[in-house]
From TrEMBL:
Residues 1-21 have a biased composition (Polar residues). Its main location: membrane. It comes from Acorus gramineus. The keyword Transmembrane applies. Pfam families: PIG-P. This is Phosphatidylinositol N-acetylglucosaminyltransferase subunit P. The chain crosses the membrane at residues 58-80, 100-124. Residues 1-25 are annotated as: Disordered. Keywords: Glycosyltransferase, Membrane, Transferase, Transmembrane, Transmembrane helix.
């Protein structure tokens, strides 16, 4: 309960609808449209905590910025000629071989992982002619007895599998 009150989405400045099912109060819907930075007597948050980003948002922002910076450094290292790097004072860097090798190894690893995944699924799957594709330990056959029907009311049949002979009759019968 306290976590939902301290969330910035439920603050009066968020502009979102809030629905309260508090046991002390009746259910109510309120729409907050107060101005930014104006303190509200109804606000459960202090003024200093409003607008504070969540930790996951901070991690996402730092991760995206660091990814862009690493990509720029990689492309600078891969495409700028060595004399230019030496003139900038950069003399210690990996061989240019790795500029092609690392992406190639990564792509080959992904392709092989997908191939092994598909292959393992084909090995584990029974052939189409196997009865294991139609029946297993969870299969339920329809009951053979028929309950007498009283008037227009008919009981609901219990959950069961439809037999392959019945499916074939429904799909391929040429009446």
């Amino acid at each position: 309960m306290a976590e939902s009150q301290s969330s910035p989405l439920n603050s009066p400045t968020s502009g979102r609808r809030t629905l309260s099912f508090s046991r002390r109060e009746r259910a109510r819907v309120s729409i907050s449209v107060e101005a930014e930075g104006v303190a509200s007597p109804r606000s459960p948050q202090p003024q200093s905590l409003r607008g504070v980003p969540k930790l996951s948002e901070v991690y996402g922002f730092v991760g995206s910025i660091s990814t862009v910076v690493a990509m720029v450094i990689f492309f600078v290292w891969a495409y700028i000629p060595e004399p230019w790097l030496h003139s900038l004072g950069i003399t210690y860097y990996p061989s240019r071989y790795w500029a092609l090798a690392v992406p190639t190894y990564a792509i080959v690893t992904i392709v092989l992982a997908l191939a092994f995944y598909l292959g393992s699924n084909f090995i584990v799957t029974p052939p189409p002619t196997s009865f294991n594709t139609m029946f297993d330990q969870y299969s339920r056959e329809r009951p053979t007895f028929i309950n007498p029907v009283h008037g227009k009311e008919r009981p609901i049949d219990p959950i069961s599998d439809i037999g392959i002979d019945h499916i074939n009759e429904l799909m391929f019968n040429t009446r």
